[in-house]
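Before the break, one more example. Copy the sequence into your notebook; we will annotate it together after we see the structure.
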Amino acid sequence: QVQLVESGGGLVQAGGSLRLSCVVSGRTSNSLSVGWFRQSPGKERDILAAIATSHGNSYYEHSVKGRFTISRDKVKNTVYLQMNSLKPEDTAVYYCAALQSWGPHIVDIGKWEYWGQGTQVTVSS
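Here is what the structure looks like once it is written out:
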C-alpha cells in the first residue's frame, strides 16, 4: 500500500500562486509515478501533471503547461505542484495519486492506484 497526503490548498486571489505538497509513504518502488489531478463540482476528475520519481520525467496537461510546475524531493518523499497565475476556473479539489509505473498510460485516470484525500483550492476573482 502507498499512502499520500496533500496539503497547501487555500484561498488565493486571481493571479496569485500556491504550492501544493504531496507526501508519499508506504510500499513504494523505484518506478513510482506521482500525479496531480483536480475535480470541480459536476465535472470529471482530470490529470494536470505527473512525474516519474526516479528519473524525473514529467507530463503536463496542455491547459496548465507554462503555469504549473511539478517537482519532487526524493529526500522528503514529497511531490510538489507549483501553481502560478491562478484563475477562478482553477478552483477545484486537488488530488495527488500514485502509480507503480511510467508510460503513456499515465493519462488514463483509471490506471492510478493510490489516492490522497484532496485539498481545496479556491481562486477568487
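The radius of gyration is 13 Å. The chain is about 0% helix and 50% strand. Try to locate both features in your own notes.
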